[in-house]
Design brief:
The chain has 153 residues and is mainly alpha-helical. The chain has a single domain, classed as Arc Repressor Mutant, subunit A (Orthogonal Bundle), CATH 1.10.10. It contains six helices and two strands. A two-stranded antiparallel sheet has the order 1-2. A hairpin with a 7-residue loop joins strand 1 and strand 2. It is globular and about 55 Å long. This is MarR family transcriptional regulator. InterPro entries: HTH_MarR-typ (IPR000835), Tscrpt_reg_MarR-type_CS (IPR023187), WH-like_DNA-bd_sf (IPR036388), WH_DNA-bd_sf (IPR036390). Keywords: DNA-binding, Transcription, Transcription regulation. GO terms for molecular function: DNA binding; DNA-binding transcription factor activity.
């Protein structure tokens, strides 16, 4: 195939990504946290305490959806609301130690199952997959933010 387009790549890889995603989360189902809840916990772990509006924007979800997800996490004592030091009227959401522990536990568990998937690859394919991981991580870090900025701007 010469000069593949983004559409060519999408058509070729989407079905496999969907299948792997579904299988990975079926196998690694030790946590009853949803994917979006885990994403919020990971974002709080990475960025620190954040306003709900910031979390909604970063996650690409509406404020009521973010607020509901955070309420559920707060009920489980995985996050807590704290006063915003820069604006005393504002509130930020922070990860609790229990939330950090659960995020670490679930991450380790899911890494284990994902590594089991990867262990079926040949050494050559594993090397190629590691090279592709930089591209996948680049997409994960930038794609959602760019789409949100485009919608809002």
């Amino acid at each position: 195939m010469t000069n593949p387009t983004p559409e060519d790549l999408a058509a070729r890889i989407r079905p496999a990504l969907t299948k792997l995603y579904v299988m990975h989360f079926r196998i690694a189902e030790q946590s009853d946290l949803t994917g979006p809840q885990l994403s919020i916990l990971a974002r709080l772990n990475e960025n620190g305490p954040s306003r709900i509006s910031h979390i909604a924007r970063e996650e690409g979800i509406r404020m009521p959806t973010a607020s509901n997800a955070l309420h559920q996490l707060e009920q489980r004592e995985l996050v807590e609301r704290i006063r915003d030091e820069t604006d005393r009227r504002g509130v930020r959401v922070a990860l609790t130690q229990l939330g950090r522990n659960e995020l670490l536990r679930v991450g380790e568990e899911r890494n284990k199952y994902l590594s089991e998937m990867f262990s079926t690859l040949s050494d050559e394919d594993l090397t190629r997959a590691i090279e592709l991981s930089d591209i996948i991580n680049k997409l994960a870090d930038s794609y959602g933010v760019e789409k949100i900025d485009t919608k809002e701007g």
